[in-house]
Design goal:
single chain, mainly alpha, 68% helix, globular
Length: 231
Amino acid sequence: MPDEPEDSERPRSEGWWESELHRNEKLLDKYLAVLGDNPDWDKWQNPDDLYNKVHFNLDPPARGAEAAEEIEADATPGDGPKGSSDDEQLLQELNETAEAAREDSNWVEQDEDPEVNLDYDTISTQARTFADRVFNLEKMPGNAELLFLSAGKVSANLAGGHGLGYDEDTLCGNIVKCRWALSDCEFCREMLEQLHQKTGEPVYAALAKESGQLADLVRERIARLRQRVWW
């Protein structure tokens, strides 16, 4: 679907968020791949070098020790002219403004709003518990890595959606992350059921049931979040 205009007053749809989040994940994979092939962090002291390698496959230019020291000095907070008293004063003013907001009786912390985060603590705890039980499985037949990966992504995607927030500009992104968590729940359930059929081990049946229960909670969460979408 075509991108919505940048100045559109309408919040981004689920379709836009899904495309954007998927693009960002693929880009992150590229960065991780480059760092995996070139784990020497000294090579990437200049962030522009890593950007150029990922986006244009350009190797960083050779730099002497003096240039490397200059890059490191520029990146050190509070060093030289960048660490001026004006910066410290601005930081203090920002902290005072934040503290004043917290003392305002009309201000409510998002994480403390029961209407917003009614089920997050419960579902995130259950997702982490499920992942821990999957990670502790021993002597699994087949490709266990796929199961481990999906079990971990359930909790990660729920946390990612929660981090995006619940206002009208990011709510659809939150929902997309929850849908991805649901997909991983279903994948885990199917794989665990297959493992139970293949081995007869009751632990796989118990985890498959737990995965299905977790999937039901995620579906309910998605439904509640969609009720908050006003358009």
